[in-house]
């Protein structure tokens, strides 16, 4: 079993063990996510791509693997997955770049004090 398949297997095994300890929570969570990912105005494929983008932006390794696999199962192409990565990267980079006014203000405020 390769690293990626093993990671998903480990996740599912961990969830199974947790379900033994907290069946009501696990059942409710599975129902909630099932409804969230059900076909609707947004296709299941697109929902998986959205989830992948969020997973990439939040650097959640297990979710990255799981939603990449699920996006493929729902018919996403490699190109769609790579474009999802590009959007996530732009968002994360954008969040850093959007702090520019804060940095500019700090420079203006503190540069006279440091000399």
Automatic annotation (TrEMBL):
The keyword ATP-binding does not apply. It holds the Pfam family CMD. Residues 23-98 form the Carboxymuconolactone decarboxylase-like domain. The keyword Oxidoreductase applies. It comes from the Bacteria. Coiled coil: none annotated. One of its GO terms (molecular function) is peroxiredoxin activity. PANTHER family: ALKYL HYDROPEROXIDE REDUCTASE AHPD, BLR3452 PROTEIN. This is Alkylhydroperoxidase AhpD family core domain-containing protein. It comes from Aneurinibacillus migulanus (Bacillus migulanus).
